[in-house]
Amino acid sequence: MNEREILCELEKLYPQAAPALHFNSTYELLVAVILSAQCTDERVNKVTAELFKEYNTPQKMLTLSQQELEKRIFSCGFYRNKAAHILSASRDIIEKFGGQVPADHAALKTLAGVGQKTANVVYAVAFGGDAIAVDTHVFRVSNRLGLAHATTPEKTELQLNAAIPKDMWSRAHHWLIFHGRRVCHSQRPDCANCTLKTWCEYYNGR
Ligand code: SF4
After folding, report:
1. What tens digit of pLDDT does each residue of 69-128 get?
2. Cα–Cα distance between 202 and 175 in angstroms, integer?
3. Gyration radius of the chain's alpha carbons
4. Within this chain, do residues 104 and 151 fall inside the same structural domain, yes or no?
5. pTM
C-alpha cells in the first residue's frame, strides 16, 4: 500500500485546503452543511449570504415559519426537508443544549438533519475534532486511489480511519475533496495530469 506517499503528495498539492462553505459561527456552519446535501457549496454560499444577514442564530431562525424558510432556501433543493431539519435542530439547540451547537459528536447526531457526514464536518471544522466526513468526492477519490476498498460511505470512513493517521483525518478529508473537484472528476478524471497516478489503483488497473 502507498498511503504514505499518497498523503504526502496530497498535502503538497493542497496545503491550504479548507471548507468551501462560508460561515461565521458554529451555528452557521451547521446550517450550511445541512443545506449542502445534494447541492453545490457555491449555491449554498449564495443562499446563506442572504439568509444569515438576518437569521444567523437558532433564536432568529425560529422566528421564520416553515414556509418562510422554504422560500429562502428553495434553490438548494430538498427544501421542505431541509427547512424542517433546520427549524427542528434550532429548537433542540435552544431547548437541550443551552443555545449552543453541542461539541460532542454523539450529541450532534441527535439533531435533526445531522447524520454521520454532517456531524463529522461540524465536529472537525468547528471543534477541531478528528473525523473524516465521507462525501461523494471523498468516497470516489479514496476508493479510486486505493486508500479504501468499500461500497458504502460508512465502510469507506472506517477503512480511511484505519489507513490514515488520526491527526491527519480532518486535513485528509479536505485534500480528497479538493482533488475530486479539481482533478479526479466523477466523469473523465484528468489522470494524464494527476501527480498521484503512480500510486492510483484505478489508473493502474488494479
Ligand atoms: S490517477 Fe486518475 S483516477 Fe487516480 S486519483 Fe488521479 S485523476 Fe483520480
Report:
1. 999 999 999 999 999 999 999 999 999 999 999 999 999 999 999 999 999 999 999 999
2. 18
3. 18
4. no
5. 0.91
